[in-house]
Write a structure and sequence with these properties.
Elements (H helix, E strand, L loop, with lengths): L1 E3 L1 H8 L1 H16 L7 E4 L5 E4 L5 H17 L1 E4 L2 E4 L1 E6 L9 H17 L5 E3 L5 H21 L3 E10 L6 E12 L5 E2 L1 H10 L3 H18 L6 E4 L3 H4 L4 H8 L1
Parallel strand pairs: 6-7, 9-11
Antiparallel strand pairs: 1-6, 2-3, 4-5, 8-9, 9-10
């Protein structure tokens, strides 16, 4: 269970307000779970629960009742008023369940599908769902991207920018592109890993790696090099510290 728009509360009113909202919602949630169930906060705005001996239709009914009460909950802080909602992923524990890690991954994938479908809804994991398989595939990229960053397995390419009106196709600049290499040396195109990097907040680390590597290469060159154009994620550009970081590294 992920709280939708929780970051807005933190950014607008601070973490003290965010903590109070979490306490209020935890009290709301407890009313919808039995003593035999498990309810836990597992991340900043993430909760997880295990419903013991509860058939799926009954579980959906109870969870939807919780979702509706959270949606109706008004949170007031000083002069601000907020309403939040829940995106929920549900996975049955049955003969197909392999282990705890797999259960958590599939519940996560279902939750992300709920977010992608518009938030404030419940998505039940289906083994053969193309959407859920896609989400699981993206999640598996997280460890691969982290390993590639730690092992320096990214490589840069320079795509020439050519003045078509000049004689002899003069190169007026280069666009810097990034590729990832697998442990066996295979080149992995950006379309395979960048969507997962964006979704799971790894894109900033990749952007910084590219910027730092380009600056290192330029520092090693003499002054005769073309203008370099670097693609930077909108998520990275929206960070407050991007400007001082760039100024420092330049």
């Amino acid at each position: 269970m992920d709280l939708d728009q929780f970051k807005v509360v933190n950014d607008t009113c601070g973490h003290v307000a965010g903590d109070e909202l979490l306490r209020q919602l935890a009290r709301v949630m407890r009313k919808h779970f039995r003593g035999s169930d498990v309810l836990a906060r597992i991340g900043g705005d993430e909760f997880s629960s295990i419903l013991i001996d509860c058939p799926l239709p009954r579980a959906i009914e109870r969870i939807d009742s919780l979702r509706e009460e959270v949606q109706e909950h008004h949170f007031n802080w000083e002069s601000h008023s907020f309403r939040v909602s829940l995106s929920i992923g549900v996975v049955p524990i049955n003969q197909y369940s392999e282990n705890i890690v797999q259960l958590m991954s599939t519940a996560d994938a279902a939750c992300y599908s709920a977010k992608d479908s518009g938030r404030n809804r419940i998505t039940v994991y289906e083994r053969d769902s193309a959407t859920t398989k896609h989400r699981l595939g993206e999640m598996q990229w997280v460890s691969r991207i982290n390993s590639a960053l730690e092992e320096n397995r990214f490589v840069l390419y320079a795509l020439p920018i050519v003045d078509l009106h000049a004689e002899g196709s003069v190169i007026v600049g280069v666009e810097i592109l990034v590729r990832m290499t697998a442990p066996d040396g295979e080149l992995i195109p950006p379309g395979a890993f960048l969507p997962a990097a964006e979704r799971y907040d790894l894109i900033e680390r990749i952007d910084y790696w590219v910027i730092e590597r380009v600056m290192q290469l330029l520092a090693e060159c003499d002054s005769d090099y073309p203008d370099c154009f670097i693609n930077i994620s909108g998520a990275t550009l929206s960070r407050n510290h991007i400007a001082p970081y760039l100024k420092k590294i330049v």
